[in-house]
Amino acid sequence: MILKSQVEWALHCCAILAGLPEGRYLSTKALAELHGLPKEYLSKALQNLSQASLVETTLGPSGGYRLAKTPSDINFLEIVEAVEGKARSFTCTNIRANNPCRPEGYCDSKPCAVARIMWEADEAWRDTLRRVRLSDLVGTLSEEVPADIWRSTFEWVLKRAG
Amino acid sequence: MILKSQVEWALHCCAILAGLPEGRYLSTKALAELHGLPKEYLSKALQNLSQASLVETTLGPSGGYRLAKTPSDINFLEIVEAVEGKARSFTCTNIRANNPCRPEGYCDSKPCAVARIMWEADEAWRDTLRRVRLSDLVGTLSEEVPADIWRSTFEWVLKRAG
DNA sequence: CTGTTTTCGGATATAATATGTCCTTAATTC
DNA sequence: GAATTAAGGACATATTATATCCGAAAACAG
């Protein structure tokens, strides 16, 4: 049960987009070069963010991506689900129903007890991600990354945005 | 990020094994037929449980599997990790290190902030599973499954255990 | 208007993993 | 000795993740 690498890429890209000056866009090319990622494939992750209305896009030179909402209005779960999908990690195939001792057409009132427990754990995972806002990540980064590196990173990336 | 179907199989098999009379074993064949699963493939899941010391085995006719511990001494996480592995769902490839504005050989004191958040969510998932004991599942099942179905299921399955 | 740059989506190819089957070996029971 | 079992290796197939390529439409600069 491993998350797609696109999840990691999307989170890092959102962290960069959160620090963009007002009105500026970053292209797939710039984000890919900054992180050393395949441009065409990263593009799929960014398209997922766009479909989830987490980022806005514009075409042409100096076009690209920017956040569609304030970093404090975006949480981790939204980003993760945008690229990973909303499906639960545990899928119940209802194998209890194969039990030959069950009456024909026997219908349980509740979903399978095993599934309920696995789904509860899944919810705990989602709750944790839901509670972390993109602005929290930005805050942590600005504490931990030396200010000059952080600043020059944006100069570097904006130079590539035309 | 989907768990293997073997996880579901292992959990249901453990629930059955938890209700076995003292000293009895259940074969792969019996467990496979009860749940309508491919015998050879289910066998791989049961081998994982055995390697994790969650079940004991014996060979020959009337051989098979039984729990190695009391149901209250086995939690869900042990079972899930036995077949799914202990690896975290999020793997950090440290793409921040590609940033061309970072000094050569720049070494962060802490692991990536993104990874720390994702790992925290992973821990929340594991904590939930760790807190649920196999005996809890058995308790729920004995409440929700009609007693006669539950009883005849064990008669059915033990008949196939020779 | 023309050429360049961009996102977007479809099509395709490759690699990795999950799923499933088959077979041999050794242990156990009868 | 014959039947039955778990263990595990080898193999085949299906599904998914990863990656690349291309064409269309939009935006912009000259």
From TrEMBL, chains A, B:
Among the Pfam families in the record, one is Rrf2
Under the heading PROSITE patterns, the entry gives: HTH_RRF2_1 (PS01332), HTH_RRF2_2 (PS51197)
This protein's GO cellular component annotations are: cytosol
A GO molecular function term, named singly, is:
DNA-binding transcription factor activity
Stretches of the chain forming a coiled coil according to its record: none
- Which domain of life, per UniProt? Bacteria
Q: What InterPro entries would the database entry show?
A: TR_Rrf2-type_CS (IPR030489), Tscrpt_reg_Rrf2 (IPR000944), WH-like_DNA-bd_sf (IPR036388), WH_DNA-bd_sf (IPR036390)
In terms of NCBIfam families, this protein maps to:
rrf2_super (TIGR00738)
Q: What is this protein called?
A: Rrf2 family transcriptional regulator
This chain's source organism reads Rhizobium sophorae
